[in-house]
Structures are given as structure tokens and as C-alpha cells.
Write a structure and sequence with these properties.
about 170 residues, Arc Repressor Mutant, subunit A, 2 domains, three-stranded antiparallel beta sheet
Length: about 170
């Protein structure tokens, strides 16, 4: 009998499948893990997580585990989920689009008053300065070469965003 074919998945589903490789998690745990592990370069919202999980379980990519506190449902990746995740990983290689609400806001910041622009830049600069410290610490502690390269990218991206904020802050 030939091996089962992998089901195509979108990037959000792939992100969740990747996180579930470490073991079963509830939706809330996945939201938290996505924020911690992926938040610097791939945003996953709570609504996306809770929309994807039942669909992925119905497709056989996940299996439901035990119920936790407040009826939180635990999910575990299945063999079909692992195949789909691997197929998604192998299908990449093309360039992708950057989706940054902050860059979009800065592009149109001319529609704001000078005070509103300054508030936007100052708040964003504070957030990115804090993120830089966290990103540097993560990059220093990473041993896996692929995770290290990704962590170094997050540091470089965060520095680039700070340079962008500095440039528009002087405009």
C-alpha cells in the first residue's frame, strides 16, 4: 500500500503543527507559544488558532487529547500532521511578503498630526528597543544552527526597524 499523501496546509496551520512537535498543547498554550517563539517574525492571533485547531483535527492532522482546566482541549500532532508539516516545509523556497502593520502605519503617517506621529514613533521605538534585548538574549543562547540563524535574523530585523523609526522620527 502506498504511503498516505500529505494534506496541503496554510502557513498558520504549519506554524501550529511545528509548535506541536514538542508535545500536546491546548489552544491557549499554542497562542502563548506562538507569541514567544514566533511573535518576532510570524504573527498568529488567538482567533486564528481557535479556527485552525478544529479544522486540523477534522482533517486528521491533529488528535484531541484530554480535557484540561475549564474544559480546555489538548491537541497532539498525528502522523498525517507530521507528513503535512514536512510537505509544507519542502514546498517553500520562494520569497515571501513582509506584513507589518507598523510599516503600513509609517507609510501613511503623513495623515497624522505631528503630535500623533511622534506618539506612534516613540511608542514603537520603546517596544522595539525592549524586543531587541530579548532577541539578543535568545540569539546568544541558541545552539541549533537553524534556530540560531533565525534568532540572528530577528535581531537584525529589530535593529532595522529601530533605524526606520529613527529615520522617520527625524523627518
Amino acid at each position: 500500500m502506498p504511503p498516505a499523501r500529505a494534506r496541503p496546509v496554510n502557513a498558520t496551520a504549519a506554524a501550529l503543527l511545528g509548535l506541536l512537535h514538542d508535545g500536546p498543547m491546548t489552544g491557549g498554550q499554542l497562542v502563548a507559544a506562538a507569541g514567544t517563539e514566533l511573535g518576532s517574525f510570524f504573527a498568529v492571533t488567538r482567533s486564528q488558532v481557535y479556527r485552525e485547531l478544529p479544522a486540523m483535527a477534522e482533517a486528521g492532522l491533529l488528535k484531541k487529547g484530554r480535557l484540561g482546566a475549564r474544559s480546555s482541549q489538548q491537541y497532539a500532532i498525528t502522523a498525517a500532521g507530521r507528513r503535512s508539516f514536512t510537505a509544507w516545509l519542502r514546498s517553500g523556497g520562494a520569497s515571501d511578503a513582509v506584513r507589518s502593520p507598523l510599516v503600513l502605519r509609517l507609510l501613511h503617517a503623513g495623515s497624522l498630526t505631528p503630535t500623533q506621529r511622534a506618539e506612534l514613533v516613540d511608542a514603537s521605538r520603546t517596544a522595539y528597543a525592549e524586543r531587541l534585548g530579548t532577541a539578543r538574549a535568545a540569539a546568544r543562547g541558541e545552539k541549533d544552527p537553524y534556530r540560531k540563524a533565525t534568532a540572528d535574523f530577528v535581531v537584525a530585523h529589530t535593529r532595522a526597524m529601530l533605524r526606520l523609526l529613527d529615520a522617520v522620527g527625524q523627518a
